[in-house]
Amino acid sequence: MLEHQDEQSLDSLFTRAESHLDRILNDAEKRTDELILELIQTFESCQRKIQHESLFSKNEEIDDVPTSSIRYLSLPFYLAKAHGQVTNLYQRKSHLLVSKQL
Predict the structure, then answer these.
(1) What is the DSSP letter of 38?
(2) Where are the domains of the chain?
(3) 24 contacts 84 by C-beta, under 8 angstroms
(4) What is the pTM of this model?
(5) I need a labelling partner for 69 at 20 to 30 A (CA). Which of 9, 17, 30, 55 fits?
């Protein structure tokens, strides 16, 4: 999955990650650490694409952000939510700390 993320558009990657997170949150059987870590990597790929494309500027007001890009402002929330789903006891603390910083 990761090797194809660079080729995908930000929109399709983000949409897929959103639906993947929704499935993980709503279906305990799909809530494996492997799938959650894959999801985190997908959201991080979205983050890199946003930075690479300079989608947002620190001096922009919300009115300056194109309507089509507003959905990406929720990325830190989604990423924190995904980090909070990790259940491996040896990794959980570090993921919760990352989640808290987002």
Answers:
(1) H
(2) 2-101
(3) no
(4) 0.80
(5) 30
